[in-house]
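Hey, resending since the last one bounced:
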Amino acid sequence: MLIFSDRVDGFIGPGCSEVCKNAAYIVSKEGFNVPMISYACTLDSLSNKDTYSTFARTVSSVGANAVPMTNLVQFMKWERIGIIYRNINLYEEAAAKFKKTLEQTFGNTTSSDMPDGFKVVCYKVWYYDENQDDGKVDMKRAANDILNECKDEVRVFVILAYDSDVVQFLKFASELESFPFAECAFITLEVTSTTVDNSTREYTRGLLSLAQKNPANAMFQELVQYVRTSLNDDTAQLDVYSATLYDSLLTYAMAAKHIKEEYYTAHSDASDEDNLAAVTELVKNGTEIVQVITELAAFQGASGMVKFDSNADRIASIEVFQAQVDATTNSVNMVRIFDTDADTGNLELVDGAVFQWNDGSAVMYRHHSTYPYSTVNIPEACGPGRKLCEEKDIQETIILVTIPIG
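The structure tokens again:
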């Protein structure tokens, strides 16, 4: 293992949460204490510094999406939410965090927005064994069982699963004759245009997806150009994780530089040789590096502005996209609907954004009101007796309030 090599001072990666969970545990143990900075691991429990003391990441935890999700629920005035999650640790933790945050925020209290109170209903694990010979059959059966059980309870579903699984779930829902697919809204995480395409348009249209902001700054463009030049390929494409990988390297370098400057200043009377030897050991110290990372000022990285919290997690900057069919090209794309306000961290409706639900309309349900600020139509009444979503007045502000978490 690389961890036993004297030549390894730290690790960049891994990119898979399940691998991170084990690797980050090992490198943090006494006798190793090696820094690890991941560019893609989002497992919520990795924030626990008692267990993962030398771990940092340039992405936010999956649980960090709970507040934007709550913002979205408040904006839409949805009173009932179903949460369906795969039997994978990453999504089990995320589902629990989402449910807790929603219930702590809204509880069962009533208001002008939610006269009947808020409820998380249909909290279901989508369990199947993908390694079985009939895994795909089992996958569909399990999904249909959930959909049939929930069809009279709720019309808004949060689906927490791998992107390809989310698309499969939507396909099953659209094909199930007993399920009112056209009346429903579906929300998920990190589904992009590479997952949603014309082959899936009939059942992915209208899907809302919360995702880390796409990189679009000069540093990212320079990185793209560097990679294309190195590969001699002008068509090479980089995604957000290419940018967060670069930022992981940048973060380690900035933390090491900070340690060096602080040490040299404090030991100005020592020889350069002695200082260099001491600093060389300090930058291998995982707990020291991680502590410095939490104290770094916000900086511009290839993936955007980077700032860390007290757990060395990247502070989330979320966008919300919706799968929509372009009337001109007749192709499906993920269209940005909400952005994160740089000053407040709140979700903000993109100016001029228009919703497009899975039936192709801007209105999800039969009864609707037109948003006064723009042409956006907000879904309202739905379900048996119109109890699943109540008709309400639309607030005039397009900026969502901050949702405190107790």
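Residues 240-266 form the longest helix (27 residues).

Sorry for the duplicate.
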